[in-house]
Amino acid sequence: MQYATAADGVRVAFGTAGSGPWIVRAPSLPFSHCQLEWSGGSAFFDSLAANWSVVQFDPRGTGLSDRDVADLSIAGRMLDLEAVTARLGIERFALHAIGWSGPMAITYIVRNPGRVTHLVLDDSQARVRDFMNIPQVRALDQLRGEWESFLEFLVFTLYGLGREQAAPIVEYLKQCVTQDGAQRIFDAVRGDDVTDLLPLVNVPTLVVQHSGMSLQSVDNARFLAANIPDSRLVILEGGVRDDTDRVIAAIADLLGTEAHSPEHPHTHQAPSGVRTILFTDMVEHTAMMERLGDAAGREVLREHERVTREVLRSHGGDEVKSLGDGFMASFSSVIGAVECAIDLQRAFARREEAGAEPIRIRIGLNAGEPIEEGGDLFGATVILASRIAAAGSAGEILASDVVRALCAGKGVMFADRGENVLRGFEDPVRIYEVRWRE
Q1: Interhelix angle for 163-176 vs 147-159, to 10°?
Q2: Which candidate, 294, 276, 400, 369, places its Cα nearest to that of 330?
Q3: 230-266: burial string, b at 16+ Cβ within 10 Å, e else
Q4: Phi/psi at 139 (nearest 5 deg)?
Q5: Which of these, 426, 429, 434, lies nearest to 388 by C-alpha position?
Q6: Would you call 268 exposed, middle or buried from its count of C-beta atoms within 10 A (0-12, 13-18, 19+)?
Q7: Which of 259, 28, 183 lies closest to 121 in space, CA to CA?
Q8: Does residue 158 carry a pLDDT above 70?
Q9: Which of 152, 155, 322, 431 has its CA 20 to 30 A from that of 401?
Q10: Does residue 270 sit in helix, strand or coil?
Q11: Cα(388)–Cα(283) distance, rounded to whole angstroms?
């Protein structure tokens, strides 16, 4: 578990696991306790972490996050999400919102275009009052003053478990939130309504609904899918703990990846055949180390490594090796490599604009069929990519003619830098600059 501090000072607890593209999970309110849920041995979390880098946080007022919080509005809850992603340096991510976190997730996507790549709405709704009007939930609402009875009936409603079977879950729920905290959260979310925002959600969306909740919940899910432009609906039979494999498969289908089991997790091995090779190199690294000293200079290098690895991961890049002041990476998609290079330059530019110690890099790209041996890549394709990177200046992305040709019609702007004599190559090599500045 780690902590991030929201813009209004609230401390937000979160945990991470797995590898691959980022999925940030926003649990349903008010019952969230990431540490207990993960340490309890969850098959669903194991399956998520076998496929993706998973982040789950305790929303304000719950779990290990600050409990005594005044602002429980959607705006306040969006600060939690923003704090966690900023703390991890995540620029783009898939967002998995459960239950009452759905309206917050929808609002965040509309107000922060470009940050979220995909959305999963899990047993959620656009209007919380629709959920509150379900007969079972109205009955639950009447029991809020009797905390033990309320929790037992809640477990029966969600999981169909009797008192003895429900006891461990009831104890878990007690650890998630206090009775007073739950009351305040219920009152805060009751008026959440993002119906008008649904047509503005512009990312691929998966709506998952367990039919065991109620017929009204299924209707709410259909309403979401019907009003979000690029959405798909999966109705699962049974309660919220059923059909984990199908949920994982549906998420993998949404993200365009292959689902792996916990026994055979996604390992990010570089694909075979034609690949695009990307080299990065930090400019004036030695001068920076002399100016800042070993300790401060190493902190800057760690930040360089963190940002680079995050952007590589978000674009499906495979880190072949770290070179101290740079990286070598491999991509199965040429446009994926170019977009990754652009996002790297933009990420470091934003960091410098914010007043941080400048990290200026140059990037070289080439495509071909390298030789793979022992997890490393060799051959003329790799050497040329390295030489192209070395020919650049700070803030530049240079690419071979092969990369430019493969990007034809994909909206990338190139500037001809002419023929260049590169060390180790007898004939001059034509190089193109990728224009990345907005």
Answers
A1: 110
A2: 276
A3: ebebbebeebbbebbeebbebbbebbeeebbeeeebb
A4: -65, -40
A5: 429
A6: middle
A7: 28
A8: no
A9: 322
A10: coil
A11: 14
The SS3 assignment for 257 reads coil
Provide the token pair at 11: 């401390």
pLDDT-derived band of residue 84, with 50, 70 and 90 as boundaries?
Answer: very high
Quote the pTM value: 0.60
Half-sphere exposure of 132 (CA within 13 A, CB side): 16
Please enumerate in sequence order all residues whose Cβ is within 8 A of that of 275, keeping only pairs 6 or more positions apart, or say none: 330, 331, 332, 367, 368, 369, 370, 377, 381
pLDDT band at 271 (very low <50, low <70, confident <90, very high): very low
Q: What is the DSSP code string of 333-385?
A: -HHHHHHHHHHHHHHHHHHHHTTPPP--EEEEEEEE--EEETTEEESHHHHHH
Segment (H or E) for 39: helix 34-39
Query: Left, alpha or beta for 389 (phi > 0: left; psi -120 to 50: alpha)?
Result: alpha
pLDDT for 130 equals 80
pLDDT range class, residue 363, cuts 50, 70, 90? very high
CB 113 within 8 A of CB 90: no
CA atoms within 13 A on the CB side of 270: 26
Nearest one of 322, 334, 22, 67 to 180, comparing CA atoms: 67
State what percent of residues in the chain have pLDDT above 90: 41
pLDDT tens, residue by residue, 386-421: 999 999 999 999 999 999 988 888 889 999 999 998
